[in-house]
Amino acid sequence: MAYSLDLKTRIINYVENGGSVAKAARIFQVGRASIMFFEIDKSVQLFLVNIEA
């Protein structure tokens, strides 16, 4: 399933601000594995931006 960028951002922000992955999964109704993937994807994007700079 494809999730919107807005939803991914809200989930990542929730977890980065102290929320647990399990609770975020319940609140936003997505799988825990998807949240872990969102976090990995964000890290890769940040890494690529730093390389291009």
Number of domains: 1
Number of helices: 3
| Distance from first to last alpha carbon | 32 Å
Q: Could you give the order of the helices and strands? A: HHH
Structural class: mainly alpha
Residues in helix, %: over 70%
Would you report the number of β strands?
Answer: 0
Mean pLDDT: 89
Tell me about the biggest sheet?
none
Compile the SSE list and pairings.
Layout: H1 5-16, H2 21-28, H3 32-52
Helix pairs in contact: 1-2
Summary of the model, kept short:
The protein has helices spanning 5-16, 21-28, 32-52. With 53 residues, the chain is mainly alpha-helical.
Question: Can you describe this structure?
Answer:
The protein is an all-alpha fold and 53 residues long. It has one domain (5-52). The protein is 77% helix and 0% strand. It contains 3 helices and no strands. It has helices spanning 5-16, 21-28, 32-52. The chain is elongated and about 35 Å long. The termini are far apart.
